[in-house]
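Example for tutorial group B:
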């Protein structure tokens, strides 16, 4: 249908909806079933069968399958079946790991999807964009992505950027009037809003006329379906590491095979042993375990109210050295409350906290009511020049919209002004707030068709635009003494960490142009609000913990310097010698000059989004890894330029969220600290299982190589090597990826972003532990074998058991950078369970008679176990008292 040709009431009739009430729940359910979810189709997910078969395409596994076939052809059926079972179990483990990671990432995408503001059953609510249906009444504002194709029903200076559809980068001004033209292209349908386009200015409402693939964007998507899966820098490093390890493992395995054949071992036995050893030596599960560790870490972050949009941010979090955080809502409660009012040249006080509408206005000790001169007018103007709504949920008030607007609504309620009074006025035009103008204006018409302008904004912007000031006696010309009095009251409020907001008005003639540049000049200043947004209780502790971790916390705010300084002092963020810079100083400072002093600055006041970008660059040029928070569309460049862009989940725009790496679901600074702890821990856990896997693999190769060099029989048969690889590598390594963080994780400085995987002594730990594990297994074999061929099966059983137990004990050593004795071994219940299950499986292989011929094992005595355990504990005891 050509929706742009229809009047709004016709669109309402055709879609059975009204813009005042929205859809009913019954209508919503029916349309969701009819049209499906509001999302663009992407490439179909890989089938589960293909994911399972992919586990067997590894080069070494293919060789092992070939070896299994040869074993079967030679009549070694037991070996062939045993190897096949182990390969299948390994395949299933890899499959479940991949499925777990895929589900985690899918859930993550759903959680980080944009939201839409819709009118349902007469109430505005926020829902995921994909739940929007045809007929929904939606509301959009500057910084939002339009969730579906809409027919605009109301526009307040609404402009959208449609370059994704038309290639035209200039914003398009939108209106609600029907268009008579025929066969118009999308760019000419200026009463329509299109899915995924960006609102760059103003606000508006519309009725959804197309969702998902039935949108203009959907038509484009159907022509070009694309998905791009990216790897994190860490995964890329590990992929490179894997290639090196494969080359080294193949070289050592070839050496073992050649030495064995040279010493007279059968070629077939050595070939099978070599292949088994190569499979055991190459940590083919490493990439899968890394992906699972990252995705599970991301799930833990979600529980702590942080959504990671880009996996690379997880490892970058551990390197963060500076957090540049917004003050309002992130370091503070974001529940602005009017505490003081400057009116008629006097300071009035307002009681009550947060969004509770109970409170009283005082002048000294006297209670004031609506009869006090200009008080009702000032609070009424605050209600009218306002885009927020005061809502109730479970008996408690909350604000849907800007917290500053919400504070004005609550203050008006305390004076007894209701929404019914608001309904007596009609909004003719809105001039939206933006960070450059630092003000917002509404043209309002009353019941008598009289028009007037209400403007609210920063006092330093409104006072110069005001030629008059309201006094008890009425409107007076503003004198220099009045300006001085106003400035004194603003300074007084700022000293108390109150945010100041001036409000002014101007009567308008009926024929006065509403697009004139002079519209917001020649104003009458009514008064100044002083508002308090109290600091969050948990932020002070979070800042202190970040300081101990070598992370500098920086406050960035648009508030007055004195307000910013007062809040920073309350939070213990600003040291005695710390600097505070304001916007005017930043304007006169180049990035190079700022870089020279940036380490001494802790608070930036009166900043614009352009200043944020300058701050990020200055910190980065000083070598810092910068986390930057933001919520507005203008914050997106600074968030994108930072190393870790953090957007606000509650107050942030869709554009900011898309530019960010991390979304704070509760807009709380303490959540950033929790995310950094988790980011550091995930990286350390990845180091733990790399250490464990590679040290185990080194031990397996060396026990065979040492035996060959000493002209001894094979201490392990191929099926035992594969069993060690299955039992001791997969599950315990996965459990290490779920390990809790160490107590000192936030007492060390940030990790160097250029640090290699084997830094901080990890390479030495892998080689040294691997050598000792290989030696104790060989010693166990030599003691049991004693050069007697009749003892070969017994010796191999003891060596096999010692190798498994040494690795399972070593896994607890891997939990700490310090020593095995520094942590409670049962703290990680997943690790304890995985080790217990591995021990039980080992006992089954040793003592269950049907499996003894398969794995070439014999039942062991109590005395054997004493020897095995003594040797198995040796590596951990030997290195248990050292950090190296």
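The residue assignment follows.
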């Amino acid at each position: 249908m050509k929706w742009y040709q229809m009047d709004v009431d016709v669109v309402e009739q055709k879609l059975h909806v009204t813009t005042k009430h929205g859809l009913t729940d019954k209508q919503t359910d029916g349309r969701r079933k009819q049209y499906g979810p509001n999302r663009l189709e992407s490439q179909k997910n890989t089938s589960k069968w293909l994911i399972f078969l992919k586990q067997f395409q590894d080069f070494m596994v293919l060789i092992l399958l070939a070896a299994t076939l040869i074993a079967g052809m030679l009549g070694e059926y037991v070996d062939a079946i045993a190897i096949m079972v182990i390969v299948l179990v390994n395949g299933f483990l890899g499959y479940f790991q991949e499925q777990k990671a895929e589900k985690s990432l899918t859930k993550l995408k759903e959680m980080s999807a944009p939201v839409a503001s819709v009118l349902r059953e007469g109430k505005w609510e926020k829902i995921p964009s994909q739940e929007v249906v045809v007929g929904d009444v939606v509301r959009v504002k500057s910084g939002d992505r339009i969730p579906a194709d809409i027919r605009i029903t109301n526009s307040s200076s609404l402009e959208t950027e449609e370059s994704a559809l038309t290639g035209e980068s200039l914003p398009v001004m939108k209106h609600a009037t029907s268009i008579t033209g025929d066969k118009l292209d999308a760019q000419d349908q200026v009463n329509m809003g299109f899915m995924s386009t960006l609102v760059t200015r103003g606000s508006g409402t519309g009725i959804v006329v197309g969702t998902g693939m039935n949108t203009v964007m959907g038509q484009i998507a159907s022509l070009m379906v694309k998905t791009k899966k990216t790897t994190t820098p860490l995964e890329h490093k590990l992929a490179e590491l894997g290639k090196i390890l494969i080359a080294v493992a193949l070289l050592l395995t070839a050496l073992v095979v050649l030495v064995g054949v040279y010493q007279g071992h059968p070629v077939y036995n050595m070939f099978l042993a070599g292949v088994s050893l190569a499979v055991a030596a190459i940590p083919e599960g490493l990439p899968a375990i890394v992906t699972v560790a990252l995705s599970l870490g991301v799930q833990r972050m979600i529980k702590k109210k942080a959504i990671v949009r880009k996996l690379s941010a997880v490892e970058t979090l551990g390197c963060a050295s500076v957090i540049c955080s917004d003050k309002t809502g992130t370091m503070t409660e974001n529940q602005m409350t009017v505490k003081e009012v400057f009116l008629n040249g006097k300071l009035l006080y307002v009681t009550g906290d947060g969004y509770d509408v109970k409170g009283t206005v005082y002048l000294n000790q006297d209670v004031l009511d609506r009869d006090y001169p200009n008080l009702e007018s000032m609070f009424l103007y605050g209600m009218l020049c306002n885009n927020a709504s005061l809502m109730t949920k479970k008996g408690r008030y909350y604000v849907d919209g800007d917290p500053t607007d919400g504070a004005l609504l609550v203050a008006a309620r305390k004076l007894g002004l209701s929404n019914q009074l608001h309904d007596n006025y009609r909004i003719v035009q809105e001039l939206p707030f933006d960070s450059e103008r630092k003000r917002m204006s509404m043209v309002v018409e009353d019941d008598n068709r009289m028009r007037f302008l209400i403007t609210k904004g920063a006092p330093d912007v409104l006072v110069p635009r005001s030629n008059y000031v309201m006094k008890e006696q009425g409107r007076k010309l503003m004198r220099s003494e009045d300006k001085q009095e106003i400035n004194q009251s603003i300074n007084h409020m700022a000293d108390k960490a109150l945010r100041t907001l001036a409000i002014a008005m101007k009567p308008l003639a009926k024929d006065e142009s509403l697009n004139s540049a002079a519209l917001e000049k020649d104003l009458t200043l009514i008064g100044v609000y002083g508002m308090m947004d109290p600091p969050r209780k948990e932020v002070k502790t979070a800042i202190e913990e970040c300081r101990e971790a070598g992370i500098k916390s920086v406050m960035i705010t648009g508030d007055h310097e004195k307000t910013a300084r007062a809040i920073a002092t309350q939070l213990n963020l600003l040291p005695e010698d710390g600097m505070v810079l304001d916007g005017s100083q930043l304007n006169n400072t180049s990035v190079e000059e700022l870089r020279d002093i940036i380490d001494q600055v802790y608070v930036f006041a009166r900043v614009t989004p352009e200043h944020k970008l300058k701050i990020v660059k200055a910190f980065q040029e000083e070598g810092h890894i910068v986390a930057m928070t933001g919520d507005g569309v203008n914050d997106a460049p600074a968030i994108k330029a930072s190393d870790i862009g953090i957007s606000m989940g509650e107050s942030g725009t869709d554009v900011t969220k898309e530019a960010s790496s991390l979304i704070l679901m509760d807009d709380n600074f303490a959540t950033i600290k929790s995310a950094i702890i988790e980011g550091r821990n995930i990286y350390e856990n990845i180091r733990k299982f790399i250490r464990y896997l590679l040290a185990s693999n080194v031990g397996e190769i060396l026990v065979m190589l040492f035996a060959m060099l000493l002209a001894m029989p094979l201490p392990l048969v191929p099926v035992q090597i594969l069993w060690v690889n299955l039992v001791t590598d997969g599950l315990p390594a996965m459990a290490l990826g779920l390990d809790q963080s160490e107590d000192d994780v936030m007492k060390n400085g940030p990790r160097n972003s250029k640090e290699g995987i084997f830094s901080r002594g990890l390479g030495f730990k892998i080689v040294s532990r691997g050598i000792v594990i290989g030696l104790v297994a060989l010693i166990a074999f030599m003691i049991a074998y004693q050069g007697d061929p009749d003892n070969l099966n017994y010796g191999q059983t003891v060596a096999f058991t010692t190798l498994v137990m040494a690795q399972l004990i070593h896994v607890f050593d891997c939990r700490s950078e310090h020593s095995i004795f520094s942590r409670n071994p049962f703290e990680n219940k997943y690790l304890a369970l995985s080790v217990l299950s591995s021990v039980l499986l080992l006992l089954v292989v040793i003592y269950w008679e049907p499996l003894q011929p398969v794995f070439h094992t014999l039942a062991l005595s109590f005395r054997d176990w004493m020897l095995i355990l003594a040797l198995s504990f040796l590596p951990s005891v030997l290195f248990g008292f050292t950090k190296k």
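The longest strand covers residues 149-161. Compare this with the pattern of hydrophobic and polar residues in the output above.
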